[in-house]
Amino acid sequence: MGLERPSPRDEPDGSPRRRTDTARVLCAAIGLFTVQNVILFAYLLIAWSMVWNAPASPAQGECARRIYLSVAALVIACYTARGLTDLTPKFRSALYRVVLLGVVLSNYLMLWDFLPLVRPDTMDDALLRVDVAALGFEPALWFERYNRLGVVEWFSFFYFSYFFVCFGYMAVVVWVNRLGRQTTEFAIGTVLVLSVGQLLYTAVPAYGPGRYLAQSFHGPLQGAYFWGCVSRTVEAGSAMKDVFPSLHTAVPVWFASFAAHRARRDRRWRWPAVLTTFVAANIIVSTMLLRWHYAIDVLAGLLLAWFAAVASRRLARWEEGWRVSIGRRPAWSFYEPMPAPATHVESA
Q1: CA distance 21 to 291
Q2: What's the number of domains the chain is made of?
Q3: Are 173 and 261 in contact (CB under 8 A)?
Q4: Which range of residues forms the domain containing residue 319?
Q5: Which of 14, 138, 281, 303 has the fewest Cβ atoms within 10 angstroms?
Q6: pLDDT computed for residue 241 by the predictor
Q7: Is residue 89 domain-resident?
Q8: Which residues lie closer than 8 Å to 82 by C-beta, 6 or more apart?
């Protein structure tokens, strides 16, 4: 048995050797990108097609620029992180994580211009009719009986805590914990929740019961400090037509599912799982009591979180095996040396 050596007939174009070299280059190029990158690229492509078909306006140009910059930044980050291996692992890892989070945040903030541009209509009436048909009442109106200072402040605190839950999980899983399979699962699941959720905003644009049913409430919510924090934050950063599905439901429930799954193997995740579940439950109630969401929005958010939990684990396992098969590092392994390429041998 010996190492395979090329023969003279392998040299011309179209030869086995040339095809092998081409396949190797192709695998190297594909290996620069991971499942979470592909999901983001798909989202950006769909968003770009919507912007392209929207009426010409300053908002159209602004959204197009953001999408182009997001694509360029993501390509550069992937190439630098996984292609320029002469750079230090610490720099490549930090750059990739900063750009990935930046692209996700930029596309969320773009919704302020994006949603009115691609869907100027509203489907509040359809969502309201679904709630009434399924439940016999609209939860946002039913919860008005609890419009008292203590109750509103309690649920406003949890609604506002959504942003800290997001920051905490991003910081711990992506920046503090050791990078590995759990990082891949978390990244895939989070990108899936946000990308699918934001695309569904364009399929079912709506303002929510607080605005659509404003004349049906007996008065404003009786909140104080935390209700003020929620109101100012929503007015400053919300797209205003982003209710279906409820990402305030989907994201913390997905985080709770992720923590519970990790807790099966790592006891340190037990308390985070319990705490996140408690916070998520209060956030779910708050979305309706504070008049932001219909019940169908919450149900859609729960289904989206379940989908992300199932899909992220399967995709992470598949990606890990696939990257090994083409001789590439795992998605988040910036510190390990490149796996040795497979050696082809022939029987003596």
Answers
A1: 60
A2: 1
A3: no
A4: 14-336
A5: 14
A6: 86
A7: yes
A8: 31, 32, 92, 328, 329, 334
